[in-house]
Amino acid sequence: MIWLPSLIKACYFLAALLFILGLKRMSSPRTARGGIVWAGYGMLVAVLATFFLPDMHNRGLIIAAVLIGVGAAWWSGKRVAMTAMPQMVALYNGMGGGAAAAIGAVELIGYVRHGLLAQGIPDTSPLRPEAWAIDALHPIVTVVALSPIELALGVLGALIGAVSFSGSLIAFSKLQGWLDKRFVFPAQRAVNLLLLAATVVIGILLASGYASYLLIAAFFVLALLFGLMMTLPIGGADMPVVISLYNAFTGLAVAFEGFVLGNETMIIAGTVVGAAGTLLTQLMAKAMNRSIGNVLFGSFGASGAEAQAIDGAQKPIDAADAAVMMAYAERVVIVPGYGMAVAQAQHKVWEFAQLLIKRGVKVKFAIHPVAGRMPGHMNVLLAEAGVPYDLIADMDEINPEFPATDVALVIGANDVVNPLAKTDPASPIYGMPILDVSNAKHVIVVKRGKGTGFAGIENALFYADNTRMLYGDGQAAAGELVSELKSMDA
């Protein structure tokens, strides 16, 4: 069947086209769901076409692995709560990086084995202990049908994939609450740079054609360790940046390994994901007033100075008074945060907003770029509740409107509305652009208690003269507001 290779390439082209169109549709909340479906069909086409490659082996094992993976993903996807979606994204992203690293490891091991065999060195299987003692300073690139560029890209893809894998696992553990928010020690940055330098040196040796099983093992151990060490000092409030950064890493790793394997779909899909992840990382970093270099090597949320003392006290308000205040307001801006996600309060919040709109109140929802635990977290929740897209405003659009806002209702948001980001140079979030909620005439904050936010920082907004605290679970508080508003209209 001489037409089979052309048909496979045509399928790969179709898959790549579906990936690109799917990603394009994901850029808008209105078409995002369809975009995910399109990209899924593209992956299905690519996987099915791969089974017909003439040199494909172990099809039974591959089918078994695919079925296990699909089953696990289907089961976990059905069971995961919306509040746990960020950890699932981090975990699945790490699996992609790990897969790319595994491809690189298999290719490097194969190059070493075939290269040494070509030089007449017997028993070179990595399963034999004596094979690990073979001198690493035997160039294999000259005896293996592999270009230096392919070898270099394979090593680079393996490095990036390994870092993304181990780093994403730490991000998952932090979001899941299994690890402390930050882990720091003296000279941590220097240790990280030494780890990276050692990994790069070994990678250069591998890319230059000098390799052994021991050298390959050392390379992956150091790469995985660097991913762990780079992520451990990062605070939980910065996880949106970390997730998008590792997403970009995974895409690049897949693209590089695709080049080594000569697989066009992997190259295109990886490049698209890498580019999208890089742009998203830049957007997240800008939203937090951080450079990409600080994202890679800085200790997020670290500050050695003592924060400013906050004067005053938190002033409570009950649901009845809060409902009256907003019922007779002209403009109300609702600011959702992770607390709304935890309480699954988005439906009640939208019900309350609809009641206000029926009374003639102008209502908008304000979204900070890093609200929640991942990019777009709040947008997904509001879309799930049915909030129209034209009522949702981003930070740059809504900030000039806060001075003319009668009531700003904050539900579960903390760090993204903290005025200390503008006033306290000692604060870990100093310089981060925030929603200027404090400029509203009145502020009502729905919060479960008096604790700090995910970044562990006290919020000066809660002590402001124009702020009142409505304590309680987000869904219960929203339900009380709905009941009070309905009783007023009865």
Structure description:
The chain starts with a helix and ends with a helix. α1 (about 5-25) packs parallel to α9 (about 265-285). It has about 500 residues and is of the alpha/beta class. It has helices spanning about 5-25, 30-50, 60-80, 85-120, 150-175, 190-205, 215-230, 240-260, 265-285, 290-295, 320-325, 340-345, 345-360, 375-385, 395-400, 420-425, 475-490; strands at about 330-335, 360-365, 390-395, 405-410, 440-445, 465-470. A 6-stranded parallel beta sheet has the order 3-2-1-4-5-6. It is built from 17 helices and 6 strands.
Summarize the structure.
With 490 residues, this protein is α/β, with parallel strands linked by helices. It has helices at 4-25, 32-50, 59-79, 85-118, 148-176, 188-207, 213-231, 239-261, 264-287, 292-297, 319-327, 338-343, 346-358, 377-385, 395-398, 420-423, 474-489, and strands spanning 331-336, 362-367, 392-394, 407-411, 442-447, 467-471. Mean pLDDT is 83; it is low at 300-305.
Mean pLDDT: 83
Number of strands: 6
Q: Can you summarize the main beta sheet?
A: 6 strands, parallel
Q: Give the termini separation.
A: 76 Å
Low-confidence sequence ranges: 300-305
Features:
490 residues; alpha/beta; 17 helices; 57% helix; elongated
